[in-house]
Design brief:
With 272 residues, the protein is an alpha/beta fold. The chain has helices at residues 71-80, 138-150, 172-180, 190-199, 225-249, and strands spanning 11-15, 24-29, 42-47, 50-56, 85-94, 104-106, 109-113, 156-157, 160-164, 185-187, 203-213. Bound molecules: zinc ion.
Length: 272
């Protein structure tokens, strides 16, 4: 694939519909990958002096529910544009009563409770086992945390995001079980996004906005979709500039382990 030089980026943002308007000098590129097209054409532009590629995770019209998002195509497309660091804002439920709606969190661990999603690029030809003990980029996390503190939105540092298959929300029993394990957040998109980024030697940093208290720890009805969208909408005007500040602060040269995670491995495919 040959692309004009303007069609490149160093940082990828995978986010929701509230992020369209935040890039300057935008162009759109349609990309095909061995895994089909990404969720939608990718918007390329500038932010804080950096070249950024934005992928609307669910598609512009929100047509992909969490279990149908073309995760592999999204990550592959970003890498093919030159992206090496990914910032991933998302809405999550809280399993911790103290972390109410509007809480910002940068988890440091992940538990996979999904069940039907392709979650590797290395399906055949050779076994490739990437290290995933620490699923997120340590440098990206540090910058997200310090930038959020500077923006006077003190984030929760660390914790475990459990990713469920969805699209339904958890039962009370599931939610109580997750909380009982000490897991702090629950979402539907953080996996396989993070592991696919790792498999392409990309840095991946989650930025979680709590929109609700999950069923098991909430009295009353439990979580509803209306509530999730309402809280997300209330916070998007705060989240957008924070994402921009984090993008601007991400390192220009990577010194974290993410870049070298595939060193010495014999890959059955050629990375873009
Ligand atoms: Zn990294």
């Amino acid at each position: 694939m040959s692309l004009p030089t303007s069609a490149s980026a160093e940082i990828g943002v995978i986010g929701g519909s509230g992020f369209y308007s935040f890039l300057d000098n935008v162009t759109e590129v349609e990309i095909e990958t061995p895994y089909g097209p990404p969720s939608d054409p990718i918007t390329l532009g500038e932010l804080g002096g950096r070249r950024v590629a934005f992928v609307p995770r669910h598609g512009r019209d929100h047509r992909f529910p969490p279990h149908r998002i073309p995760y592999r195509a999204n990550l592959w497309a970003l890498r093919s544009l030159g992206v090496r660091q990914v910032l991933a804002p998302s809405a999550v439920g809280s399993l911790t009563p103290e972390y109410g709606p509007g809480t910002l969190a940068v988890p440091d661990q992940l538990v996979d409770r999904t069940s039907a999603r392709p979650q590797t690029f290395y399906d055949e030809g050779a076994a490739v086992h990437v290290s995933f003990s620490d699923p997120y980029c340590p440098d990206g996390r540090g910058i997200a945390l310090s930038t959020a503190r500077a923006a006077e939105w003190p984030p929760v540092d660390g914790g475990t995001l459990v990713v469920i298959e969805g699209p339904r929300f958890s039962t009370r029993a599931e939610s109580q079980w997750f909380a009982g394990q000490g897991w702090t957040l629950v979402g539907m998109t953080g996996h396989p996004e993070a592991v696919l980024a790792r498999e392409l030697a990309l840095c991946y940093t989650p930025l979680c906005l709590v929109t609700d208290l999950d069923a098991g720890i909430e009295e009353g009805e439990g979580v509803t979709m209306d509530e999730v969208f309402r809280v997300f909408a209330e916070n998007i005007d705060r989240l957008r500039p924070l994402v921009a500040d984090i993008v601007a602060a991400l390192p220009r040269e990577r010194t974290c382990p993410c870049a070298n995670v595939l060193d010495g491995m014999k890959l059955p495919i050629t990375l873009p």
